[in-house]
Amino acid sequence: MGLVNSCCTSLASGWRRLLAYARSQALGLPGPGVVPSASAPSELCEPSREPVTALPLFGEMVLYGFADGELLGVESQTRAVLLRERLPKELLEADLARKSARSFRGSVETFRKQHLEAFRPAVLRQSAQGWPAMEKWDFEFFAKHCGDIEVEATLRQGKRQKLLLRDYLNDCKLQAGGDELPYLRGWYYQRDAPWLQKDLWEKGDFHDVAFQDWFKRLPARHHPDFHWLFIGAAGAITPLHIDPSATHAWLSQISGRKRFTLFAPSDLPELLSESGGFKPIADIPVKRQEIVLEPGDTIFVPAHWAHQVECLDDSISVTWNFLGESLFPTVRAAFLANAAKPAYEPEL
Length: 348
Ligand SMILES: O=C(O)CCC(=O)C(=O)O
Ligand SMILES: [Fe+2]
What we know:
The protein is of the alpha+beta class. The protein has helices at 6-26, 89-93, 108-116, 132-136, 139-146, 165-174, 189-192, 206-210, 268-271, 328-339, and strands spanning 53-56, 61-65, 70-75, 80-86, 122-124, 150-154, 160-164, 183-187, 227-232, 237-241, 248-255, 258-263, 289-293, 298-301, 306-311, 315-322. The chain has two domains: 6-88 and 330-339, no CATH class; 94-324, Cupin (Jelly Rolls, Sandwich), CATH 2.60.120.650. The chain binds 2-oxoglutaric acid (AKG) and fe (ii) ion.
């Protein structure tokens, strides 16, 4: 899936490279790789100018957001600035001093205003209650009905391995309690077993109406396959990361419990180590929000909230990363800027 760490490595090291490049520009060095229509603006040379967030987008493109809401679209390979935009101010303001994750029993409209448009996490308790999956899905169900499907599990240190779902579920049992358990993350079940969908939400349900995916308004080749099942044994972990392509996510817990640890976008610089990766969460000095999802609960993780996830029990979840309305103009602008890039490979 490539989601873990991909963004924040770009935030720290990408930004430093860009800054070094901008400084070299100011010194009058030739600027190989600059797209002619857009050069690195001189204010990048300000040492104090550090981004507070970065949105990984199409290809290698990263959008760096600043405290004042300014946003620079940067092609990280060529280090050229491709567009200037503004981030929704709600994203930059989102922090844990405001209302954060909480129980929710309101209407779609309330959810939109208080969470989706405000970039505030939410826990929607028992919002998947009544889905047939809640009664049917456990490890035995998948071994019996989907055992012959080849899946790709994540092993130690992010290594991936293809194996039959039946064998993966067996391995989960054998390795229970060990370190770094294998974890089936991001299984795009709609390709292999689309019939599973009938066990989930229906048209007109909260999930269908509240979580509109604005990717659908971009050309079809840019609709990502960000709709997955996660199946993991108690103890399996998804390390701290930010979800790809500026997407919000919802995740509904079907079986077992999961703990989410969330950090606000405004704290992003505190989460990164010198080398550009994420620090272990135990070493992060800022406030975090911990939420335990019970079967039937759904969490809404807004774009750019970093999160770590741990299976507290043998766990099955369904999740969808979707593009929200307020980031759509930015993502569309990035898409157009990316599409308008000259067709040559700049020299580095
Ligand atoms: O449930 C998990 O282990 C991780 C889910 C998640 O954060 C993701 O899909 O991006
Ligand atoms: Fe995630």
